[in-house]
Design goal:
Helices cover 25% and strands 29% of the residues. By secondary structure, the protein is of the alpha+beta class.
Length: 191
């Protein structure tokens, strides 16, 4: 906590930069006119204030057609909120957060009918539980993974278990990713 400004928060950027600061969240139209503003302590994640800023925007623009935002706002809850309000999400690509030599999440195929994942070796990762944050957890069978030739590209688990999480609103993020490839989203994001 800052002794000179207790209302600010510790802003962390990268692995080394840490500074007490505020974050200034601004929503503008395509001409740069400010439609909504929120100032928060620097330790508050962008996604936590999105709904407040969107509420300010909808007081000025009752039915926005699209919202363009950076990757900090690309969460299942925000994507779901935008879809429910029939607002087009215009969000950037976010690269997978896995180690270079490992399979990426998109290498595992989700089967919505059976609610399971198939790994690159065609083994099943079965549904295990849903946590309080809304993430469904899937788990492989260690007896199968133990002898798998892809194990070192899949998991570092000593128990030979691969786990994957999928948010209950993951399809909303997938739809936003799909829209990212459309000409309309490319045009809006470029503005």
């Amino acid at each position: 906590m800052s002794t000179t400004d207790p209302e600010c928060g510790l802003f962390v950027k990268g692995e080394k930069e840490r500074v007490f600061a505020y974050s200034f969240h601004t929503a503008c139209d395509r001409n740069g006119f400010v439609l909504g503003v929120k100032v928060t302590p620097g330790n508050i994640h962008d996604s936590q204030v999105f709904e407040d800023v969107l509420h300010e925007v909808t007081r000025v623009v009752p039915a926005p057609q699209a919202v363009a935002a950076d990757a900090g706002y690309k969460t299942p809850a925000i994507c779901k909120m935008l879809q429910e309000q029939e607002i087009r999400p215009v969000l950037p690509y976010t690269r997978p957060k896995t180690k270079e030599e490992f399979f990426k999440k998109h290498d595992y195929v989700y089967d919505e009918h059976y609610d399971c994942y198939l790994c690159p070796a065609n083994a099943i990762l079965s549904y295990e539980t849903t946590n309080r944050a809304g993430y469904k957890m899937y788990r492989s069978n260690p007896a199968i993974c133990q002898a798998c030739p892809f194990r070192t590209q899949c998991t570092e688990s000593k128990e030979a278990v691969k786990r994957i999480s999928r948010h209950v609103w993951a399809e909303c993020v997938e739809e936003a990713d799909h829209l990212r490839h459309t000409e309309e989203n490319k045009r809006i994001y470029a503005e």
